[in-house]
Amino acid sequence: MIDTAHQPAAALIVNPRSGGRNAQGLALAEALRADTATRIVRLDDFAHLEPALADLARNSPEALFISSGDGTIQYVQTWLAERSNLPHERWPLFVLLPHGSTNMTAADIGLRLKGVPRQAELIRRRGWRGASAAVASRPTVRLRNVRGGPQHGMFLGGGVLAEATLYCQETFNRRGMRGQLGPLLTLLSLGARAVFRPAGPRDEDRIDRPHQMRVLADGEPLADGWQVALLATTLRKLVLGARPFWGDERDTGAARPARQRRDDTPLRLSVFGWPPPFLPRWLPVVLYGGERRRLPPNMHSRVIERAEVHTPARFVMDGEEMIRDDARTPLIVERGPQMRYLLSA
């Protein structure tokens, strides 16, 4: 039974270390200090997040504001879906504030309201309850066969996408560079080198080298052999506004499966084979082409419910590296449960 007498209208989780020093999140927490209907959780130690979530779950808030980067959001989604034991109808409305380093998830399904004073006022007036509130519903990407049990996020990247993410974090984010600049510099650095000499399987010093991958999509073979990268996402756009997925049957006039409702965002899977095509010609098409784009035959993209990935390559989910206890077991990528996100109010 919900203890409505003590149920907070909202909760705010602030990770002060997101993006170096999360000045916006700390300022928002200070602005709401007198609001007794808003529970504030400050994560001076990330290890405190799980007990804080367990405490919040006892009287779950209507809206959960998260001031952090993609990694904290991914942790909260995983805890809610796998460990909270809360029924779906008691899951809070997520409100994502882009206060981290890259903020890919928040750029797509985050709160489109800038400025701490305006965000604080929205929380104080419970703006998510209004008729004008815009809410998006998205499934997660559920990943199995990784350390710590199933994980839920919005983006999974393997091969060069994982290596580039970790390189960007080490080279740019840890030096205080936030937003889209780090990913852009990473793309330019990797692209410039690959134009002159694409990496091969034996180039162990190159982060854009291919990896052996065998991919099954809904039980059918999709790719087998040397692959440059793999991604799975339920976001509609990625970093730098890219959309490296195509072939959604719902946008090409073909009939869609009955299990996919009209308001659903699908789980998209893309695999990019080796050798890569001539990048100056094909990279803009890969990143920004339409649903009917035509690409070389070793590039595949489709809407899926489940994928099985056999590979020794590294993977990241929302910027966090996914560690497998046994690299011989395949990664299982599935369409996860729907969660709701406040876009505007």
**Which structural category fits the helices and strands?**
alpha+beta
The CATH architecture of the largest domain would be Sandwich
What is the residue-averaged pLDDT?
89
What is the tally of beta strands? 15
CATH topology call of the largest domain: Tumour Suppressor Smad4
Question: Beta-strand level of the residues, as a percent range?
Answer: 25-35%
- Taking pLDDT < 50 over at least 5 consecutive residues as the criterion, the unreliable ranges are 1-5, 252-262
End-to-end separation: 29 Å
The major pleated sheet works out as: 11 strands, antiparallel
Bin the helical content.
10-25%
Shape: globular
Rg to the nearest angstrom?
20 Å
CATH class of the largest domain: Mainly Beta
Q: How many domain regions?
A: 2
